[in-house]
């Protein structure tokens, strides 16, 4: 099936351009190589932040000081948050899988601005380096939490400025990627691919890109104001200088709440790709999913106040923000119903990516439904700033985005590397991870209900029991991660080679190109006249190579 | 599942919890069961030929409208239980709650200052929230109330009415730096008669210290109740400020108005360090870490602290 009459392009992995070796990667403008650069950077930093997380959970195994003191714990949760939010989940799926697959899925040879794309990665790396200097210079690692709340962030002697400035620089990477994707989707779709014939992952990237473009400048300005305040003593946020600390919270969350949708929308896109492929059935309610994606991207701008229900805002503002928060729950619910309906009367193929997608549904529902408890005013007052919130956002950000990321890598792995992973180890890793995840985070809901506040390196004895379970869960989960990573890394280097174009029987365009894709993806730009999820030709007989 | 309720807000908050969690569990269990059922029923072994269904507009409308109605119900329950928290009565006992890194104190109308909050049952308690340095948050889980304490924000108030006697925990819920986890104190709810007896007892304002009292021990109680130990250790380890251990009477090198000099660690030095902490900064430490305790630690208490520091040398 691969014998073309014309001269075959080399695969993007083998292609030898102007530079050799590592330069051929870090100076490459190929969207696929850039996607992999992001992937490797993120895997490295994810491991660092996960180790910080496991050390924190070990500290919380018993009341009192078990393995670290308060200063260490406080700088650990700060760095854990900064890495996980700014380096991993915000760029996350768009930077890795968006870069790699967006052009292929819409029938393009690359993104609209390949050099700008490479610049985005470099800006991202420079931002990371600036953040890292905060750990080793000045007054020591910052201890403010990733939220940098005023006025504490102005009073702590630790090295807050480089961390803030690094996050500011990374914001530009996010904005540039957003612009690139919006233009790519508008201008480079294959002939015949109207908006409503575009696959759902590109659709979610489109919604995400707009949030990146419109919301990220707000955090950029806010972080600059912090720099001005700390360096020049201008009182924006510090009451000692006549500033307003609640203004800081507004500006921070005007970005950081939409940022949650930057994290979760592409995850929803990935799940919308995986479920039809492994159900061998058209996605249920394509238009409803598209509409709900854009609705989330839009309404998500207006709910930031629910992070501030106890901060001293006026009652009328709280009323409004609570109401809008409940509205934004609806599009997410619609998606869940559509995904489950897609499985109905399908022919379910239980492979690793599908396990991740189905477990995503469960953890995303837990995260979303507990969000309702936090969205209501009276219950929020009790749970605000407790472990309940920590559990909730880990279920959404790690459960949602993280599970989708794992699903995505197991789904697209053969296409990206031209090799296959060991399915048994992959499934085992998934099982251990899933059990560990639940026992790590479920007890935190209970702790929050009992009233244990967050960001505590020590706690009263009454909170001990659930904390033991949670710490043990963390160790189980990290074992799962080790198995998954070991399997993927080993398979990427020496797994069995495959040039099978379409191992899962997918209908979207990335499964019609070579494995691994050639330098320019397509010899000829395809024409697209079909909807992306039509399985009417599926005979019930799978590809024997599968 | 959570701490026994002890304020008038509890029943309303409980209702909201039951309503929202009830619906949440119903959907979570229901949808999960459907997914598991599908995994078996439509497994490719049992169901090799999939149906072709692109969607169903009626279903889309149903599962948009029903959740919309349900979440509006949730919003309503959350809202009605929250209104009373914001309707602060005029009649009641007004107490100013002060927060600083990392301790609470409470100033009553007669000027007494306590480190625990003492209140009568069945009486409206109105707290004026006052933060000295950074954001804190006053959180009483058993009462289901929480409000941030914002430096510079005047007229920031919360209220509650206890309907059970007992001792409950007050936590700081907003991250406030190094010893955030240790910033908690007790809320003691008494029968009204008992409370007014306690309140009328003015010896609490200026305690008469018996002749044979162990002054050092009383000093230790002051040091513990004011939260000094969060920064000044008793065992020689350096936390934020210099340790209390074994220094009294020794010479100490300090920086005063930019000039390094050597002074004696004496009563005058201790008093100045409490009321004007940045006047003399011990070499090796940073200014600006401690705010004055003027008005929070009385002259008598300073004398007790000095007795305690003296005793550490022995």
Quick overview of this protein structure:
With 546 residues, chain A is mainly alpha-helical.
User: Could you list the spans of chain B in which at least 5 consecutive residues all have pLDDT below 50?
Assistant: none
Number of separate structural domains of chain B: 3
- The number of distinct β-strands of chain A equals 0
Count of beta strands of chain B: 13
Taking all residues together, what is the mean pLDDT of chain B? Answer: 87
Largest Cβ-defined interface: A-B, 93 and 85 residues
How much strand content do the residues of chain A show?
Answer: under 5%
Give the overall silhouette of chain A: globular
Q: Would you spell out the secondary-structure blueprint of this structure?
A:
The complex is a heterodimer of chains A (546) and B (314).
Chain A: H1 23-26, H2 31-59, H3 70-89, H4 92-105, H5 114-136, H6 152-155, H7 160-187, H8 200-232, H9 245-279, H10 286-299, H11 315-343, H12 352-375, H13 377-383, H14 387-417, H15 423-450, H16 464-494
Helix pairs in contact in A: 2-3, 2-4, 2-5, 2-16, 4-7, 4-8, 4-14, 5-7, 7-8, 8-9, 8-10, 9-11, 9-12, 9-14, 10-11, 11-12, 12-14, 12-15, 14-15, 15-16
Chain B: H1 10-41, H2 57-86, E1 93-100, E2 103-107, E3 113-114, E4 117-120, E5 124-131, E6 136-140, E7 145-149, E8 157-161, E9 166-172, E10 184-190, H3 192-200, H4 215-225, E11 251-256, E12 259-264, H5 267-275, E13 280-282, H6 299-312
Parallel strand pairs in B: 1-5, 4-10
Antiparallel strand pairs in B: 1-2, 2-3, 5-8, 6-7, 6-9, 9-10, 11-12, 11-13
Helix pairs in contact in B: 1-2, 4-6, 5-6
């Amino acid at each position: 099936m691969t014998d073309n009459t014309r001269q075959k392009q080399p695969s993007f992995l083998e292609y030898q351009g102007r530079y050799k070796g590592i330069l051929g990667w870090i100076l490459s403008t190929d969207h696929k190589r850039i996607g992999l650069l992001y992937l490797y950077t993120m895997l490295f930093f994810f491991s660092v932040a996960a180790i910080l997380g496991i050390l924190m959970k070990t500290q919380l195994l018993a009341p009192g000081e078990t393995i670290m003191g308060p200063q260490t714990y406080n700088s650990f949760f700060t760095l854990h948050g900064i890495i996980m939010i700014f380096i991993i989940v915000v760029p996350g799926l768009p930077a890795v899988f968006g870069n790699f697959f967006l052009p292929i899925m819409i029938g393009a040879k690359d993104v609209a601005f390949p050099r700008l794309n490479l610049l985005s990665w470099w800006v991202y790396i420079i931002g990371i380096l600036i953040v890292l200097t905060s750990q080793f210079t000045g007054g020591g690692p910052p201890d403010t939490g990733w939220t940098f709340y005023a006025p504490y962030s102005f009073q702590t002697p630790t090295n807050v400025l480089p961390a803030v400035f690094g996050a500011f620089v990374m914001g530009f990477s996010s904005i540039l990627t957003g612009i690139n994707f919006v233009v790519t989707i508008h201008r480079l779709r294959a002939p015949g691919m109207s908006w409503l014939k575009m696959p759902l992952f590109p659709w979610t990237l489109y919604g995400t890109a707009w949030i990146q473009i419109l919301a990220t400048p707000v955090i950029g300005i806010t972080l600059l104001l912090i720099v001005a305040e700390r360096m020049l003593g201008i009182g924006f946020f510090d009451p000692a200088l006549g500033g307003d600390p609640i203004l800081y919270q507004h500006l921070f969350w005007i970005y950081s709440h939409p940022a949650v949708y930057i994290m979760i929308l592409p995850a929803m896109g990935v799940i919308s790709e995986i479920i039809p492929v492994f159900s061998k059935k058209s996605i249920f309610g394509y238009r409803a999913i598209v509409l709900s994606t854009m609705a989330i991207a839009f309404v998500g701008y207006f709910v930031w106040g629910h992070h501030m229900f106890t901060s001293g805002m006026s009652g009328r503002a709280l009323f409004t923000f609570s109401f809008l928060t409940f509205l934004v729950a609806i599009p997410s619910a619609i998606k869940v119903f559509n995904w489950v309906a897609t499985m109905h009367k399908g022919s379910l193929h239980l492979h690793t990516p599908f396990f991740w997608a189905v477990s995503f549904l469960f953890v995303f529902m837990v995260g979303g439904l507990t969000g309702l408890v936090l969205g209501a005013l009276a219950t929020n007052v009790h749970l605000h700033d407790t472990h309940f919130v920590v559990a909730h956002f880990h279920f959404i950000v790690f459960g949602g985005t993280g599970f989708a990321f794992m699903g995505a890598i197991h789904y697209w792995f053969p296409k990206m590397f031209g090799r296959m992973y060991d399915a048994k180890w992959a499934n085992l890793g998934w099982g251990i991870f899933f059990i560990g995840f639940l026992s790590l985070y479920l007890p935190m809901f209970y702790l929050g209900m009992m009233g244990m506040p967050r960001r505590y390196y020590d706690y009263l004895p009454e909170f001990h029991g659930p904390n033991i379970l949670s710490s043990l869960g963390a160790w189980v989960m990290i074992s799962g991660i080790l198995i998954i990573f070991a399997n993927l890394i080993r398979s990427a280097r020496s797994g069995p080679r495959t040039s099978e174009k379409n191992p899962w029987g997918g209908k979207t365009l990335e499964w019609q190109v070579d494995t691994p894709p050639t330098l320019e993806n397509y010899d000829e730009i395809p024409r697209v006249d079909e909807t992306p999820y039509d399985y009417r030709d599926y005979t019930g007989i799978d590809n024997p190579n599968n | 599942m959570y701490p026994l309720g002890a304020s008038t807000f509890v029943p309303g908050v409980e209702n909201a919890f039951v309503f929202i969690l009830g619906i949440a569990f119903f959907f979570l269990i229901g949808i999960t069961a459907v997914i598991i059922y599908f995994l078996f029923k439509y497994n490719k072994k049992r169901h090799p030929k999939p149906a072709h269904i692109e969607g169903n507009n009626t279903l889309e409308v149903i599962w948009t409208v029903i959740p919309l109605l349900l979440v509006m119900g949730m919003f309503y329950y959350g809202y009605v239980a929250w209104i009373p928290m914001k309707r602060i009565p005029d009649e009641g006992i007004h107490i100013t709650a002060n927060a600083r890194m990392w301790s609470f104190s409470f100033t009553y109308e007669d000027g007494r200052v306590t480190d625990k909050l003492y209140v009568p049952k069945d009486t409206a308690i109105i707290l004026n929230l006052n933060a000295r340095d950074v954001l804190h948050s006053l959180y009483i889980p058993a009462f289901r109330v929480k409000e941030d304490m914002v430096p510079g924000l005047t007229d920031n108030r919360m209220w509650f009415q206890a309907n059970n006697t007992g001792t409950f925990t007050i936590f700081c819920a907003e991250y406030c730096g190094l010893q955030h986890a240790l910033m908690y104190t007790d809320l003691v709810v008494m029968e009204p008669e008992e409370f007014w007896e306690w309140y009328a007892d003015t010896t609490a304002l200026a305690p008469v210290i018996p002749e044979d009292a162990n002054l050092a021990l009383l000093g230790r109680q002051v040091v513990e109740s004011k939260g000094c130990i969060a920064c000044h250790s008793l065992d020689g380890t350096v936390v934020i400020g210099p340790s209390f251990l074994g220094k009294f009477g020794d010479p100490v090198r300090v920086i005063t108005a930019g000039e390094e000099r050597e002074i004696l660690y004496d009563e005058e030095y201790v008093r100045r360090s409490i009321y004007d902490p940045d006047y003399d900064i011990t070499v090796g430490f940073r200014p600006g870490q401690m705010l004055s305790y003027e008005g929070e630690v009385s002259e008598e208490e300073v004398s007790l602290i000095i007795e305690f520091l003296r005793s550490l040398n022995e």
